[in-house]
């Protein structure tokens, strides 16, 4: 059973893209990727924080594809249903209670449900994780994301896709991802600071990206109403365990994202794939909890290299991408 608090299909504030590795995983699940994927990412432009300098890495093949999360998520749900899962939207989980033989799940205005095993994939929400008795992280300074996504007028639509990455977007940290697809423009700013600071900075980038004709529309006014969301300031590698009593934590909730690129969809799905194998073994095992505990070892063996930050000082190297082509390519 899949539970989600939202009513589906639902809009998702997300700069949606999936890498080539993620596409291979989708194909392995038997999904028709040609119907899920938007335009290929064939060119990326790096910009300095004041947009005065740019660099284009030499890309030999597409890095991945842009996706629309409403379409993408709906397809994943349809695939899950086809394979026997029951999906319940508008089920807001308010409390979980680990018990001897499973986990009791309480939803707002609904009868409690008893699950033998539970997977928590709640994104940035920490409430249920703590109820499961799992300590994910301390009181680190939060990282925020400001996001806007706007449909383009039909007269300005094209078949090309532009991706701009503004490095060092906030003072001393963060990046801004500007994406123009055939029918939409999205801006996403990640960084440390108060939400109003990110909103103000996003407005500045929206204005300058239009003024310098990098984007075809000025979204300054739209940026003033940006959605601001907290994101986790840690990666899965910093967490001691993702296993509670009859419970596993995966995806963004567990810090499964690439430290350098902030890629999230593929590592979230990857952690879920490993969790599925572990859960299958746990259901077959006489000692289910012992089998669940192997998740911590399994994902580290497979995913650690992908998740860990590069063994370099990025703040020192980032300026070099504007003067050193091999560095931009790397």
Description:
- It contains ten helices and 18 strands.
- The termini are far apart.
- A hairpin with a 2-residue loop joins strand 17 and strand 18.
- The strands form five sheets. The protein has a seven-stranded mixed beta sheet with strand order 5-4-13-14-15-12-16, covered by helices on one side.
- It has 330 residues and is of the alpha+beta class.
- The chain is 31% helix and 26% strand.
Helix-strand category: alpha+beta
Largest sheet: 7 strands, mixed
Distance between the ends: 42 Å
Helical fraction equals 25-40%
How much strand content do the residues show?
25-35%
Largest sheet: spatial strand order: 5-4-13-14-15-12-16
Mean pLDDT: 89
Total strand segments: 18
Specify Rg, calculated over alpha carbons: 21 Å
Please state the overall shape, judged from the principal axes of the Cα atoms.
Answer: globular
Q: Please count the helical segments.
A: 10
Low-confidence spans: pLDDT under 50, at least 5 residues? none
H and E string: EEHHEEEEHEEEEEHEEEEHHEEEHHHH
